[in-house]
Design a protein that fits this description.
Number of domains: 2
Structural class: alpha/beta
Number of helices: 9
Number of strands: 6
Strand content: 5-15%
Distance between the termini: 9 Å
Protein name: YjjG family noncanonical pyrimidine nucleotidase
GO molecular function, one term: 5'-nucleotidase activity
Shape: elongated
Order of helices and strands: EHHHHHEHEHHEHEE
CATH class of the largest domain: Alpha Beta
Largest sheet: 6 strands, parallel
CATH architecture of the largest domain: 3-Layer(aba) Sandwich
Helix content: 40-55%
Organism: Wocania arenilitoris
Pfam families: HAD_2 (PF13419)
CATH topology of the largest domain: Rossmann fold
Length: about 230
C-alpha cells in the first residue's frame, strides 16, 4: 500500500544504498597488500564484520569516541585471528582504511533505478552516522550525490541516530514536516526506531530472514520501495 502525504524521503547511506561490506572487503584487500600484512583476509573479515557492528553500536551510544572505534575494531579483529601486529601498524591501517574506503563504490542492486524513480516525485535526503570526511566522498564517487537535496551527518549535529536531535535537525534543514517524511535504513535501532520515535514513518531495508515483529514496512531489494512510494 502506498504511503500517502509523503513529500520527502530520508535515506541512510552505509548498508542501505552504499554496499559497505563489499567495499570494505576490497579496501582491506588493498591496504593489507600495501602494508605487507599476510593475514588471511577472509578469516579476518569474518571476525571484523561483527566486531565493527559492536563498535558502531558503542559509538552510537556515545560510549566510545571515533579514535577508539577506528583502533579498537582492527585491534580486536587481529586478536580474534591470533595475528600479532604492532600498535603503530594498526594505526597506519586505520588511516589507510579511511583514505581508500571511498575509492570503492559498489552500490546495492537497483540503487540508481530507485533513486531515479523517486527523484521525480519526492525530495531525497541522507541522514548518516558515518564520518563526515568519508560520506561526501562516497556520494560523489558513487555518482549519486546529485539526487540528494540535503545530507545530515552526525558529526555536524553532534549526536548520532537514533538520537531525536539528528532527525529533527534533518527535518529542519530540509524544511519539511515530520508527517510528510519517511526514513529508509538498515538499522532497526538507529534508523527505524529513531525515526518512529520522532513521529516519522519508516521502511526497513534488510533480509526477510530478519523479519521484524508487527506491521513494520520492510523491503529486501530497493526496487520494492515502489510498493510504498
Amino acid at each position: 500500500m502506498k504511503i500517502k502525504g509523503v513529500t520527502d524521503i530520508f535515506f541512510d547511506l552505509d548498508h542501505t544504498l552504499w554496499d559497505f561490506d563489499k567495499n570494505s572487503a576490497l579496501t582491506f584487500d588493498k591496504i593489507f597488500k600495501l602494508n605487507n600484512i599476510d593475514a588471511n583476509l577472509s578469516e579476518f573479515l569474518s571476525c571484523y564484520q561483527p566486531i565493527n557492528l559492536k563498535y558502531w553500536k558503542l559509538y552510537r551510544e556515545e560510549k566510545i569516541d571515533k579514535a577508539s572505534l577506528r583502533f579498537g575494531r582492527l585491534n580486536d579483529a587481529f586478536t580474534a585471528i591470533n595475528f600479532n601486529i604492532e600498535k603503530e601498524l594498526i594505526n597506519q591501517l586505520s588511516e589507510d582504511y579511511i583514505t581508500y574506503l571511498s575509492s570503492f563504490n559498489h552500490l546495492f542492486e537497483n540503487t540508481f533505478e530507485i533513486l531515479k524513480y523517486l527523484n521525480t516525485n519526492y525530495n531525497l535526503h541522507i541522514i548518516t552516522n558515518g564520518f563526515s570526511e568519508v560520506q561526501h566522498k562516497k556520494l560523489t564517487k558513487a555518482n549519486i550525490n546529485h539526487y540528494f537535496k540535503t545530507v545530515t551527518n552526525s558529526e555536524t549535529v553532534g549526536v548520532k541516530k537514533p538520537n531525536p536531535k539528528i532527525f529533527k535537525y534533518a527535518l529542519k534543514v530540509a524544511n519539511v514536516k515530520v508527517d510528510q517524511s519517511v526514513m529508509i535504513g538498515d538499522s532497526y535501532e538507529a534508523d527505524i526506531l529513531g525515526a518512529l520515535n520522532v513521529g516519522m514513518d519508516a521502511i526497513y531495508f534488510g533480509s526477510y530472514s530478519n523479519v521484524l515483529a508487527g506491521k513494520l514496512k520492510q523491503v529486501n531489494n530497493l526496487i520494492h520501495l515502489k510498493k510504498y512510494l
